[in-house]
User: Fold this.
Amino acid sequence: MKKISLLLIASIALFSCKLTDQNNSESEDENLPLAAKDSSVVNDKDEHGCLATAGYIWSKMNKECVKGYTGIQLNPADKPENEDETLSAFVLFSEDLNQAEVFLPNEANSVVLTRLAEGKPWVFEDWQLVPWKGYVLKKGADIKFSGDGQMGKKITGSDTQE
Assistant:
């Protein structure tokens, strides 16, 4: 009988401690923002499932997540020696080279340009990508970006190079 009483008292004591801990943590959590309460709530994937913090962005042209900064880097016209990739535009080409997808800095969506024939510029609305001493990206008559045309390796899906 003593053993049963002792076991019952120990069980009640453990159970009441657990309730006290839960009540304390719930009241502390009320003051925290939602993201701090549960880190699984934080999701940095875009609507296509691309992991933004790893540098992936959705390619309209390729229909997959790509690392946009692995294309041809075009530096701002006012900073031709730019080393800050966050200020640069990047261009990826389709396999047949008839389309060029431009990833502009601070823009969530890319722009897909099309050319009618080899040697002609790629065009979409008032954007033009002109092959001249590398590439020049113009909006209307204004040169916005330019680069030497050096191509980086395209990285898709994961961090393995193709």
In short: The chain has two helices and ten strands.
